[in-house]
Amino acid sequence: MKLPVFFRLLIPVITMAGSCRVSHNHLTDLSSTNWIHGSKDCSLNTDPPIQVVQVNYNTFILRQNKCSNYEAPFLFLFLGKKKVLLMDTGATEDEARFPLYETIKKITDKWQQETHRQTELVVAHTHAHGDHVAGDFQFKDKPNTTVVGTKPENVISFFKLQNWPFENAVIDLGDRKLEIIPIPGHEPSSVAVYDTETKILLSGDSFYPGRLYVRDWLSYTKSMQRLTEFAETHPVSYILGNHIEMTRQPGIDYPTGTTFQPAEHQLPLHIKELRLLNKVLQRAGDTPTRTVLADFIVSPK
Fold it and tell me: Domain of 197: which CATH number?
């Protein structure tokens, strides 16, 4: 199938995932996607500041270059007919080093040209930690752009969440609905996001292949119970967190601050791993317990 012009005019900083085709119905195989993963000597790094992988015709995943910030967070872009939702803005404010607004604008401009629609950009966050909100500054005062605040009350108000954190809410981007799921515990404003189209479940820093830092043990335990129950009752293609910190060797992580991860774990996790996390937390009860597992490490703070 020949791709429309939009997908043949992607901007230079975009790196497509292998030779996978993107379409309305098929997703890029994220379990075999090669992500930029830094360099031994960052002065010699030639990777783009942002890698962009197209998941399907209206979904993108971005990863920040580890040589601009070792956290190398992932960001997620969902395009609808009326709104575009960007979840998280990375770890670097400086637009010269981390041209996030430019990257997003070029993607959305092409989307608008191809769909003959004007869209509003909504910038929201999986949670409020600095490595996921630093790029907010780039979107300040930009036209047709709303940046959602990072405090729980901001998140509750914008998404019209009732009875936080026990009830979910839905944002409609225009023939595309995403469900916002409160999951405080890692951070007070943490949310998960479920895309009803791709069946992708975003889990932020609450669940990913790495060190799961738990700051409020009781809240986190309850949140992961609710998230597991949600995943058990909805079709889920991938569970995607914000980082990769584990190696391909079970139970072994890269040290904090690592800027070169040549043998890192794949990004996606699945319901079986989430089910295991929930089981471990329930077994621990009220006692914060560090637990090393093959795909992640529970790390109470």
Answer: 3.60.15.10
